[in-house]
Design a protein that fits this description.
This protein has 189 residues and is of the alpha/beta class. The protein is 40% helix and 11% strand.
Length: 189
């Protein structure tokens, strides 16, 4: 159980980087974390990524802090940009990727954006959900093989490395991630 937790819950202490990536989601916590890192001078650009979930076929909506982020959002990118701007990140620092419908596409389309802008990404911070960290990191590493990543994860739903095995919800979330890692990478390789 400890080995599974250590594998799934990837996390680092951030260092100065060229960019902060945020894979698409409906939780504001990851974008709020990215905004704090930006304001502390960790990176000059933030790239939120996402259209909506391929499973849902539309943006599923804001999943927490609905009182702060109560507009109608058509895409994850639009929502994450609003969170960043609400947290004082200037418009010019926020890059746009609004086509991705799942995590691997977040990485693919983010790479297209950074390449299109001529950005060299030597170091990057990845702000994602705690138990989604390993899978997101693996995808971004595939698309940015020469980049050093620092994972800065948040747990908006309370599922952590320490407590995931204590609840049925936590066990489902983490074993679901392990299953997705195995199945999705098997299809990709």
């Amino acid at each position: 159980m400890k080995t599974i937790g250590d594998f799934v819950f990837a996390e680092d202490i951030p260092e100065k980087a060229d960019i902060i990536f945020i894979p698409g989601n409906g939780y504001p916590e990851m974008a709020e974390h990215a905004a704090r890192l930006y304001m502390e001078g960790y990176a000059p650009h933030i790239l939120p990524s996402g259209k909506y979930s391929v499973v849902m076929g539309h943006f599923s909506g804001v999943l927490s802090s609905k009182q702060d982020y109560n507009r109608k959002y058509d895409t994850e990118w639009e929502f994450l940009k609003d969170v960043l701007m609400h947290n004082h990140v200037p418009d010019h620092a926020i890059l746009k990727e609004d086509k991705a419908t799942y995590t691997y596409e977040n990485a693919i389309y983010s790479r297209k954006v950074t390449d299109g802008l001529g950005l060299t990404i030597r170091k990057a911070i990845l702000c994602c959900k705690s138990y989604h960290a390993r899978r997101a990191l693996m995808y971004y590493q595939m698309l940015y093989p020469d980049t050093k990543f620092y994972v800065c994860a948040d747990c908006p739903d309370g599922i952590t490395r320490e407590n995931w095995k204590d609840t049925e919800e936590g066990i489902r979330a983490v074993t679901g991630e392990v299953t997705r890692i195995i199945l999705q990478f098997q299809l990709m390789v």
